[in-house]
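During the first year of the project, the team set up a workflow for recording each protein of interest as an amino acid sequence followed immediately by a discrete structure-token representation. This format lets reviewers and collaborators read both layers of information side by side without switching files. As required by the reporting guidelines, we include two representative entries from the current panel. The first entry is reproduced here exactly as it appears in our internal archive.
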Amino acid sequence: MHDAPSTAELVAAVKRFIDDSAAPQLTGHAAFHARVASNVLGTILRELEQRPAADAAERKGLLSLLGTTQNEDLDALNRELCEEIRRGRMDVETAGLLDHLKTTTIAQLSIDQPNYSGLARALHPRS
């Protein structure tokens, strides 16, 4: 049986090559592009690792907020939420809305910008 490397393993290997072998030998514009490439690969790794759970949690939250069990995709559910807000049927007083928005924003930041200073405060608020 042949066990091919996973997508995450392949991406991680390329990222390690850039970080450990290529980037240290580069300067100027090429070094900048190597850092950008490494950051993109890091984002891809976080997407592979975190996106399925984040999407499942977002979908569950949307179904609860919208009071539906429709088997719609995540984009359709988000469009429906936007429409509810746009029409004034949901606002900051809607139970669960702000928690849902905060949770989905934190999940997205955890993937896109894990070193964002506000993310650490959101994940670990002072009591």
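The second entry, processed by the same pipeline in the following quarter, appears below.
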Amino acid sequence: MKSLSREDIKVIMEKWLKAWDEHDLDGVVEPFAEEIVFEHWTGSTVRGKKELIAAWRTWFDGHGGFRFIKEDIFIDETDQKVLFRWIYEGPTFGRRHQGKKEVRRGVDILYFREGKIIEKSAYSKTTIEIDGKRSV
């Protein structure tokens, strides 16, 4: 079993975040294993890299300038895990405020195996900002 060094994980994360900044879906999914399991902050789950690409394609194609701002990254080399704390800025996900700017904070927990991300679980605060105003 291939274990990544802390530096290896750091490099993967830097490339991954750059791909998000560039709205490069292929770059975002590149470090994912074919059997990736993604759990969205809404509770929905996507299994498989092809399925995840299909699920995210429309969002990336019409991205509206979204971005994830890195707040902090915690790397556990021993257990091959990363906790990525972020701020999302971009179009709101909710229909009620469609077309407005949303800001939300959250974390991703990423699990690595054999040098690839095998699981990504996203968690978000329930209080967000819509057009600069607090919304629940």
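For the second entry, the following points were noted during internal review. The chain has one domain: 6-135. The first strand starts at residue 32 and ends at 39. Both points are flagged for discussion at the upcoming steering committee meeting.
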